[in-house]
């Protein structure tokens, strides 16, 4: 898989975000209405260098999509500055729009009653792709995303993975030097997600600058050059995956398989001295209690003693992953 | 300019394709409704009117369908794009949103042309209304001018939906008052004096007058000219509204459903 090379812009950060803020106004009540202000993004700053794949990680509602929507000119920031290729996203919105591509996750955002080919033809015109370039470019992208032969079918009959691939083709039609990907693999089956990840990796090797948001830590770990973790609208950590893992690497992780653990037990484990963070993962009929500990603490016995009443299975200890780093950062925020 | 025309052209084609595949709602709006309107109008006027009156009414009924289709298109285009989440993608493209809106709005008016054919055929077959064109060439000029002015009025209405998510309710409400105000069912001269300035600002008023005068006799050139002048005004208003409402929608975060 390969993607056409885009012109490089040397000597500048391709994306620069300085103290970006966004507040939403909302109302509550029916008769006695009250106006509320919700701060979705609270002073976010980061920059992305040319050719870099930058990850923005955070839980639901952390402000990832709001940040991306400000960068792609769909939302006007309440304050702060954002520049793409040196141009302000508010003042030079049209200039920026011509040079960015964006892909949102999920199965919406396409003209359902039209074919994939019609969707691409329409957006090729909207993005000003030269008429003589349209046909070969669309064919090239259909080939890239594996939709050749299915392009004349209506989108409403497409699977989620096919729609997601069509989204990616749409986002690359005008061969933009900067691409924004908002959870592009969400809801896609493992094989499809692996293909999409390979496609994303090929974007940076073709010289494009990519901003990726994802919930999947292994995805961020394997794809991103640098990552910013965002929680409650603020960036709580920034660095390479290795640097973020190093933040918790001085500790270790204890995993305990349990059956029917109560919330009270989890809270008691959280209260043990030396415990940094506790999360529970549901795995089929069992649960896995993941406990991050400070360096040198041997807490297995203390943890097990707090799980009274629950049936305990396998207990293991391992080195922290990016997910552990993420959980620690987000729960501490 | 050439690129804008290409966007309008493909927007028009693809919107027609979408409407052709939209099933029951479009069938009702574009096929059944105009025939129902025409039947009501024929029954209302059959007893007292001669052939000329019936043709006059028939053309008014055709414009009722044309207006309904334009209104439906204006309300539905933005609403559907918002619900299928394509509105944000279309707005974030470098081509001004107004340009893509022109293609889709003109497509709705074009579909409304069916109501003209359907109504006249219905009147001919069931009520024996004759169809002889007094000025065939001017008719060929009057019809596209009317479609253009109605389509561009649709843009002005659609622009409000960019900012206000529930403005389609207002668009729906406009269907019947415009029938009366534009003189589709009864001459404007019968309306109260304060309504008449409103009538003269509406594309359907001049569209139906241009078509009636080219079919029944008269001098339709002035009405055709008014259609084109109003089209230019609507285009300017559309440009102003789309640009400002788009910016406000980006500020208030109303482009998406959530």
List the helices and strands and how they pair.
The complex is a heterodimer of chains A (333) and B (258).
Chain A: E1 15-28, E2 34-48, E3 53-57, H1 64-71, E4 79-84, E5 87-88, H2 93-99, E6 100-104, H3 116-126, H4 131-144, H5 160-172, E7 178-182, H6 190-205, E8 209-214, H7 217-223, E9 226-231, E10 234-239, H8 241-249, E11 252-259, H9 263-270, E12 275-283, E13 286-293, H10 300-305, E14 311-318, H11 322-332
Parallel strand pairs in A: 3-8, 3-9, 6-7, 7-8
Antiparallel strand pairs in A: 1-2, 1-4, 4-5, 9-10, 11-13, 11-14, 12-13
Helix pairs in contact in A: 3-4, 4-5, 8-11
Chain B: H1 2-20, H2 24-45, H3 51-83, H4 87-91, H5 97-127, H6 136-163, H7 168-173, H8 175-181, H9 196-200, H10 203-216, H11 221-252
Helix pairs in contact in B: 1-5, 2-3, 2-5, 3-5, 3-6, 3-10, 5-6, 6-10, 6-11, 10-11
Describe the protein's architecture and organization:
- The complex is a heterodimer of chains A (333) and B (258).
- Chain A is an alpha/beta fold and 333 residues long.
- Chain A has 2 domains: 15-239, 3-Layer(aba) Sandwich (Rossmann fold); 246-332, ACT domain (Alpha-Beta Plaits).
- Helices cover 33% and strands 31% of the residues of chain A.
- The longest helix of chain A is centred in the middle third of the chain and has 16 residues, at 190-205.
- Chain B is mostly helical and 258 residues long.
- Chain B has one domain (2-252).
- In chain B, helix 6 runs parallel beside helix 11.
- The mean pLDDT of chain B is 83.
- Chains A and B meet through helix 2 and helix 3 of A and helix 1, helix 4 and helix 11 of B.
